[in-house]
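User: These chains co-purify. Model them together.
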Amino acid sequence: MRRARGEGDLFPAGTDAGDDAGADPAGDPARARAETAPRPRTGLRRLGLLRRCKAYGEHHLQSLLDSLGRLTRNPVAGVMTIAVIGIALALPAGLHVVLKNVQALSAGWENAAQISLFLRKDLREERLRKLVSELKAMPEVAVVSYVSPDEALAEFQRLSGFGDAVNALQQNPLPGVLIVQPALAASAPAAVEGLLERLRGHPDVELAQLDMEWVKRLYAMMEIARRGVAVLASVLALAVLLIVGNTIRLAIQNRRDEIEVQKLIGATDAFIRRPFLYSGFWHGLLGAVIAWLLVNVSLWALSAPVARLSSLYDSRFELGGLGWGTTLYLMLFGILLGFIGAWLAVDRHLRTIEPS
Amino acid sequence: MLQFINVGKRYPGGQDALSGVNFHLRVQEMAFLTGHSGAGKSTLLKLIALIERPSYGQILFNGSSYAGVGRRRIPYLRREIGIIFQNFKLLYDRTVFDNVALPLVIAGHEHREIQRRVRAALDKVGLLDKEKRYPIMLSGGEQQRVGIARAVVNKPPLLLADEPTGNLDPQLSEEIMHLFEEFNRVGVTVLIASHNLDLISRMGYRILTLENGRMRADSDPVAA
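Assistant: Joint model of the two components:
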């Protein structure tokens, strides 16, 4: 095949070397012949800014697609790495969704605060009635209900399990209790606290207690959980960085010869770095997509039992998923981690590869 | 074009690969660099390609010194030099076309421009019909032609070749050498390291002879 062409055909440019000047050792001979005017040299120095930008964009796009292509060329290893990244991202994302749901569920409870007024033991019947009507007249109060000492004792006996011990009591030690339900308009925590203070000052009231402590405790616990998720997310983010970094490091080792050749023919560090950074980008993005799928599949698996449970509580609570905003954050976070992981690896290892 | 002024290279361990080398390669000149293996041919080429830095002395390329060239500027200088290797140094997971296109991609040329120039370069080395092949499917001589096409596609003013015919039979070697002559004829400065004395003395170009790191002979027609 090589000899099939004559020597003369091998070097067609040799014939027009005279008029094409020395500047064009590798120019297109056909084109050189077709153009009668001397062709200007089209080296990079003569390239317009616009064409250069276009070429730059072309190369970026090509690197982007090429790095994706490399991922698909070795699908097993690629998918495993991406799955690990996906799981690492799915854990904090999933816990975040759980927290959001608990928050949504408990948002209504803040308004469910009740005030229990423990009345003085020696309170007379008419004073009690007067107090009840006084309370009912207050605009902040919606409902007032009375639990007599006998009712309270019966309830205690029933619920506490100390039935026999209670029977042994000479007299009922429990006071009467008024349960005050604040009106909806006054159900904000500050307003409820204000009401509580005023009722506490009433002479007939021994003790006024806001039944919201448990909500506060729940919130405190949720704050701890939120911090826990943040810590977990940081640790797993570090893991993703290391996974991507190691993957890219291996990719760099595998393409050592190629990097050497590229450096020999004048590639800048940025040029060599580019496909690896895009590879990190893909790992991060695809990992985030896997994480999104994992979280949504888990939510889907949970949604039916949760709906059943909430119907048992006569609630219309529905399990919330990853919203658009969170999904976007998840993707951006994944991409950022992939990019940074790749950058760290490339920065460390690219310099060590020099042609020799 | 390229000037060495009292250049020496000492490797860690105290071994002198080159000592006190002087020569001046003029624009559009073609010259051979010869000597026994270990005489310093490869080191000299590495100094020109900025793969190694000299221990002392000055290297001037197009009149400006290599001394002040930092790491960041090296790639741009290397684009002015087309290098051809004994072992071709092709990328075996890419087609012939993509191998030859690499310098143009690196230099940031447009896709259309790249296609046009790669075809022209492949046409020149007679491999236009094999652009879609992978290097592994080609013979040694053809692979070396791909290497040559890649070296010239960006139209560098200087071509360096390190034992370009070292792995080829005599007939192929001669063909490759004639190819270099063609490039030289259209104005490219060419420096070829080769120990194929028989072939290069027949061709009648300037011959630089290294021996134990020193320039023993220089058949410079101008200096003579």
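Chain A touches chain B through 51 residues (CB under 8 Å).
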